[in-house]
């Protein structure tokens, strides 16, 4: 395998390809995952509402974009991921996990089959804060017969919201037939773009991988439509929390197994039966027998937001910890995710959360807090509609 990263860590405070573009549009910039990134432009609440009602443009170029290629790429990925990569058809996307031997989550990621029968290729998007470790881990665990390439000269944009499709269709008519968790490639002004109908907001939308040198021109072309505004990290976080989507390093980490994290759906039926992936010996019994803790949603009384690390109680007994929290603008109330003892995880269970020395009432709630609005293909009336796959009901 080739293209190993030279270092296990990224340099501090990297600049995004659109750094100056963000500043010209009035962004407030902060450091995140080793990059200087826009946290907000007009304000988090306004940007959150705009994305729910129109189309928000997010720069997520800090994410790791990787390419795994070679004749044995599918089998190689099957050996390191718990998802059924060999069954992933061309133009389809699947959510998956990197696990260690103890079943802990090293990262979560998206896998897209962008290859052909003659030229197998899989496009991976991993989290920005972990991408260097992910690449080192993949280099160690993938065989020499496949090639791992870091697409470090590519930017990644996300166009999210109910008007995203209408906007993108004007520039890329090829996306008209895409449904949620599907992908294609298209040319724009001579540049090859990779487009998937995915996102991290719970809304319909797209993620666009493109050469960094044309990212500013493409962002300008999207922003020329009055339905589009640039959106920062702050609203991205509040949107993903309302959608019930976990954030690596907060709602899960290497000490968290997929079942506790509520991500067991990422382990496909065949892999549950056959195993043969890293972490299988630890995770498969948990799928069968359950775990002592679960990731749940919480709705809090009052207006005080729960923050990561806040203690969760059932009566006088501490039963868990908040992993993500904040005010949920679309809900109109504080919401949180927490890992708590499984015996208290039933929706409707009354609990309390300790916030600044005060005990605040909370209720276990179904997630997502705001229903997903992913674009799914309508099945013909003459056919029995299939049950949605677990991947299609998640991130």
Please provide a written account of the structure.
- By secondary structure, this protein is an alpha+beta fold.
- Among the domains are: about 15-60 and about 155-240, Probable tRNA modification gtpase trme, domain 1 (Gyrase A, domain 2, 2-Layer Sandwich), CATH 3.30.1360.120; about 290-365, Elongation Factor Tu (Ef-tu), domain 3 (Beta Barrel).
- Helix content is about 20%, strand content about 30%.
- The protein has helices at about 20-25, 45-55, 75-80, 130-140, 165-170, 215-225, 235-240, 270-275, 280-290, and strands at about 15, 30, 35-40, 55-60, 65-70, 95-100, 105-115, 120-125, 145-150, 155-160, 185-190, 190-195, 205-210, 230, 295-300, 310-315, 315-330, 335-340, 350-355, 360-365.
- Strands 11-12-13-10-4-14 form a six-stranded mixed β-sheet, sandwiched between helices. A six-stranded antiparallel beta barrel has the order 15-18-17-16-19-20. A five-stranded antiparallel β-sheet has the order 6-7-8-5-9, covered by helices on one side.
- Strand 7 and strand 8 (about 120-125) form a beta hairpin.
- This is aminomethyltransferase.
- Belongs to the GcvT family.
- It comes from Croceicoccus esteveae.
């Amino acid at each position: 395998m080739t293209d190993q990263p030279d270092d296990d860590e990224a340099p501090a405070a990297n600049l995004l390809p659109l750094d100056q573009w963000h500043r010209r549009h009035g962004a407030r910039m902060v450091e995140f995952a080793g990059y200087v990134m826009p946290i907000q432009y007009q304000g988090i609440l306004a940007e959150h509402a705009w994305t729910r009602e129109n189309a928000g443009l997010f720069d997520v170029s800090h994410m790791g974009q990787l390419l795994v290629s070679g004749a044995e790429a599918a089998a190689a990925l099957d050996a390191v991921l718990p998802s059924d990569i060999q069954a992933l058809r061309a133009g389809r996307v699947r959510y998956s996990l990197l696990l260690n031997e103890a079943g802990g989550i090293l990262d979560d990621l998206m896998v897209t089959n962008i290859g052909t029968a003659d030229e197998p290729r899989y496009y991976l998007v991993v989290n920005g804060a972990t991408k260097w470790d992910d690449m080192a881990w993949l280099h160690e665990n993938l065989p020499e017969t496949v090639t791992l390439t870091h697409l470090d000269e590519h930017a990644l944009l996300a166009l999210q919201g109910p008007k995203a499709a209408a906007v993108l269709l004007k520039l890329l008519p090829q996306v008209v037939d895409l449904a949620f968790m599907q992908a294609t490639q298209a040319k724009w002004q001579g540049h090859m773009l990779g487009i998937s109908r995915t996102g991290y907001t719970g809304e319909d939308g797209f993620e666009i991988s493109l050469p960094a040198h044309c990212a500013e021109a493409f962002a300008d072309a999207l922003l020329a439509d009055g339905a589009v505004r640039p959106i920062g990290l702050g609203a991205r976080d509040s949107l993903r929390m309302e959608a019930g989507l976990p954030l690596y390093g907060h709602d899960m980490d290497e000490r968290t197994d997929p079942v506790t994290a509520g991500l067991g759906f990422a382990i496909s039926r065949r892999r549950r039966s056959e195993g043969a992936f890293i972490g299988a010996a630890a995770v498969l019994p948990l799928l069968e027998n359950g775990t002592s803790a679960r990731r749940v949603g919480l709705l809090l009384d009052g207006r005080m937001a729960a923050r990561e690390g806040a203690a969760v109680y059932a009566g006088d007994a501490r039963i868990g910890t908040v992993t993500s929290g904040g005010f949920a603008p679309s809900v109109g109330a504080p919401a949180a995710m927490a890992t708590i003892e499984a015996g208290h995880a039933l929706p409707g269970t009354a609990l309390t959360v300790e916030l600044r020395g005060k005990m605040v009432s909370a209720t276990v709630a179904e997630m997502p807090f705001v229903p997903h609005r992913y674009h799914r293909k309508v099945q013909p009336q003459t056919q029995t509609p299939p049950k949605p796959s677990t991947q299609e009901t998640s991130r």
